[in-house]
Specification:
Length: 241
């Protein structure tokens, strides 16, 4: 009897693990959305709309290739940029805006934002904001989006962001791409977790931008075949749109 109970427990644990790995979007919408309403996880409504967000850029040549592909696919994106990475391409923000994309603040370095002391967090937030504004000039920016490095946050962070008119954006479709799973898994994951109002998170680093290109070439046509369309993040979150 003890052995049977142990086996049942292992099976349930394995089922839960598979559910978390393959279908976290459901857990996000059922648990995290009501627990953390101040955080943007996804859009509302039943329209089959998605927003694409791309973290950690610019990567240099990879970022330029992404802009070319997004123009071909006619997909708008929100690029969450890292301050120090703008040294790789100092005019990337301007070109992204000219193409109709939006920009977000992903702090100064690629590190967990939640571990930063509050004064350093606020300094990096302001420094990155200024760096992106310089890269985007002469276009003017109305700051709106922030994504923490590592995806974790706390109350002090939310208060600091609110004081500067930012919204903390995470997402609901994160296909584990930073772990570099096989491309077939990434495509399967996106297909399983796509939902009305979904926010897809991909990455633009020297190591990952090529995989992001391959992913978008495969998943965008398939999602459109299923009736989804990609819209800007602001439109996804506007209940009147």
């Amino acid at each position: 009897m003890t052995l049977l109970l142990t086996l049942l427990a292992l099976v349930l644990l394995l089922d839960l693990l598979i559910f978390v790995v393959l279908l976290p979007s459901l857990l996000i919408r059922l648990l995290l959305v009501p627990l953390c309403p101040e955080v943007v996880w996804s859009g509302r409504g039943r329209q089959k709309r998605l927003a694409l967000t791309i973290d950690d850029g610019p990567s240099g040549t990879g970022s330029e290739a992404l802009l070319v592909l997004l123009r071909e696919l006619e997909v708008p994106a929100t690029f969450f940029l890292i301050g120090t990475h703008l040294e790789r391409d100092r005019r990337f923000a301007r070109r992204a805006l000219q193409q109709g994309h939006d920009l977000g603040n992903h702090l100064w370095r690629d590190e967990p934002s939640v571990s930063l002391p509050p004064p350093l967090f606020q300094q990096q937030l302001a420094d990155t904001e200024r760096a992106i504004a310089r890269s985007a000039a002469p276009a003017s920016l109305r700051w709106r989006w922030f994504r923490p490095g590592g995806g974790r946050f706390h109350r002090a962070m939310l208060d600091a962001l609110s004081a500067r008119s930012y919204r903390l954006v995470l997402g609901s479709i994160f296909p584990w791409d930073t772990l570099r799973p096989p491309l077939w898994f990434v495509c399967l994951f996106v297909g399983l977790n796509a939902h009305p109002g979904g926010i897809l998170v991909l990455h633009d680093t020297p190591a990952l931008s090529g995989r992001t290109l391959e992913t978008l070439r495969l998943v965008v046509p398939e999602l459109r075949r299923r009736g989804y369309r990609f819209v800007p993040l602001a439109e996804l979150l506007d209940p009147a749109a």
